[in-house]
Amino acid sequence: KQRNGHEPEFLQAVEEVAETVIPYIIQNDIYYGKNILLRMVEPERVISFRVCWVDDKGEIQVNRGYRIQMNSAIGPYKGGLRFHPTVNMSILKFLAFEQVFKNSLTTLPMGGGKGGSDFDPKGKSDNEIMRFCHAFMSELFRHIGHNTDVPAGDIGVGAREIGFLFGMYKKISNGFTGVLTGKGMSWGGSLIRPEATGYGTVYFAQRMLETKGDSFKGKGVVVSGSGNVAQYAAEKVIQLGGKVLTLSDSSGYIYDEKGIDEEKLRYVMELKNEKRGRISEYLETYPHAKFIKGKTPWEVKCDIALPCATQNELNKDDANTLLNNGCICVSEGANMPSTKEAITMFHKAKILFAPGKASNAGGVATSGLEMTQNSLRFNWTREEVDLKLKDIMSNIHDACIEYGKDEDGYIDYVKGANIAGFVKVADAMLAQGIV
Ligand code: NDP
Questions:
Q1: DSSP string of 25-48, one letter each residue
Q2: Ligand 1 touching residue 99 (CB < 6 A)
Q3: CA 294, CA 288: separation in Å to the nearest integer?
Q4: What is the pLDDT of residues 359-407, one digit of tens each?
Q5: Ligand 1 and 182: CB distance under 6 A
Q6: Which of 303, 290, 299 is nearest to 319 (CA)?
Q7: Which stretches make up the Glutamate/phenylalanine/leucine/valine/L-tryptophan dehydrogenase C-terminal domain (predicted)?
Q8: What is the spatial distance between Cα 96 and Cα 111, in angstroms, rounded to a whole number?
Q9: Ligand 1 nearest atom to the CA of residue 158, by list position
Q10: For 172, which of 37, 58, 180, 407 is 20 to 30 Å away at the CA?
Q11: Distance 227 CA to ligand 1 centre (A)
């Protein structure tokens, strides 16, 4: 706390892990007294750099770029890049820390990292995005590599940005390698990678519901966000027979009582991905829907909630409203969207609750599959990748049960994910000595 007191999101993420992992360490001699968690919370390397670029008016702009290389005990650093004005050291360290546990849970050989910039892509032209991405990569390239550190997308970094970043990396390194994931299909990408985080979040929820003999069929589902994760979570919910009631962005949420079906979702995808519009524009085509400005969608009555926008978007009051409205399952698509108090309420009510590091691990898992395909110089089919994704989500679910089942039979997925993620990384760190 003394060292990181000015980093609230990082402390929040560490506290959540510490509360469940420290009792486990105390009970297990092989970990006790080795300061293993103390070592895990200190990033192996933190890189901060200047990014200068020229906007369309010819003015020079300056942003700050970062890469946090958190832990490489079980593989090269792996984790996304976020471009958003709120990006700072605390946010990236919390994301990098979560990533270490998440990547361990996937069972694939990936360490944890995260990076990005306080650059705001909103309202920028394609040319400005390209110039920024090229400038960002002209420094980042010296710190990454397909065996060292393999970044991917996150908020504000989608297929377009990965393309520009990859182009610059390839040019200055003079090599075509799998240094980034989320690439286009014709230049090294993997099928299902765009869908993977959203699909995985729903696959995980499906496994949780099965423990109660339940399913998505006929359920009312509230989804937040309308970006990559939200879009594909919604798509999978629709395919499984659920009714998607909401989507949102930072300006508010839309509520479609009749349900957002496949056709309406296609419209949202075009609106957000091609036209880069706002979610409120949904009403221009579907005027029966409502737009609730400046609010999050948790006040809408639902059976299942999928927070897929950003950290701390679901607080204690929201949790209370969801529970009073009869919500039985929350599966996090975003990273740390529920506050600590909200999670405590879900646990007290004994509903199904999956933390992002378990339920949204499908994205990075499929990135791991992209890395494997790049190394093999081979592409798996859509069905093959989807099957592997389903398998991985199912295995993560089972690992959570192994370490998270309480005496009364309730599955504490937070405890399960933290301990299962910890064990693999801790074992590797112990085997490698103090490095
Ligand atoms: P996108 O940039 O594609 O979409 C983000 C969505 O969240 C947008 O609808 C955005 O609205 C909204 N949002 C962002 N910041 C805020 C905010 N401060 N308040 C309210 N709404 C906000 O990002 P992704 O879908 O990729 O990421 C969403 C979440 O999922 C993040 O937490 C990310 O870390 C996590 N995640 C993503 C993975 C991936 O594979 N992409 C993998 C694992 C986790 P607006 O357009 O108005 O900003």
A1: HHH-TTTTTS-HHHHHTS-SEEEE
A2: no
A3: 19
A4: 999 999 999 999 999 999 999 999 999 999 999 999 999 999 999 999 9
A5: no
A6: 299
A7: 190-433
A8: 10
A9: 3
A10: 58
A11: 6
Q: How far apart are CA 25 and CA 46, in angstroms?
A: 27
Q: What letter would DSSP give residue 360?
A: T
Of 53, 69, 70, 71, whose CA–CA distance to 61 is shortest? 53
Measured CA to CA, the distance from residue 221 to residue 206 in angstroms comes to 13
Residue 46 pairs with which residues in a beta bridge?
68
CA of 35 to the centre of ligand 1 (A): 34
Protein residue whose Cα sits closest to atom 48 of ligand 1: 250
Q: In what order do the strands lie in the sheet with 220-223?
A: 290-293, 252-255, 243-249, 220-223, 304-306, 329-331, 352-354
Whether residue 405 lies in the annotated active site: no
Q: How far apart are CA 349 and CA 375, in angstroms?
A: 46
The two three-digit tokens of residue 199, written as one number: 């699909």
For residue 225 and ligand 1, the question of a CB distance below 6 A is answered with yes
> What are the extents of the domains in the chain?
41-178, 195-359
Active-site residue, from 102, 114, 264, 415: 114
Q: What is the pTM assigned to this prediction?
A: 0.97
87 CB near ligand 1 (under 6 Å): no
For 241-291, what is each residue's pLDDT tens digit? Answer: 999 999 999 999 999 999 999 999 999 999 999 999 999 999 999 999 999
Interacting residues of 410 by C-beta distance below 8 A, sequence separation 6+:
350
Residue for token digits 């919604």? Answer: 234
* Spatial separation of the C-alpha atoms in residues 367 and 93, rounded to whole Å: 20
Check if the beta carbon of residue 377 is closer than 8 Å to that of residue 370. no
Q: State the architecture of 195-359 in CATH terms.
A: 3-Layer(aba) Sandwich (3.40)
* 41-178: CATH class: alpha beta
| Strand, coil or helix: 371 | helix
Ligand 1 centroid distance, CA of 117 (Å): 15
- CA-based angle 11:203:417, to the nearest 5? 30
318-327 pLDDT, tens digit per residue, is: 999 999 999 9
41-178 against 195-359: fold identical: yes
The first and second tokens of residue 326, run together, are 């009869």
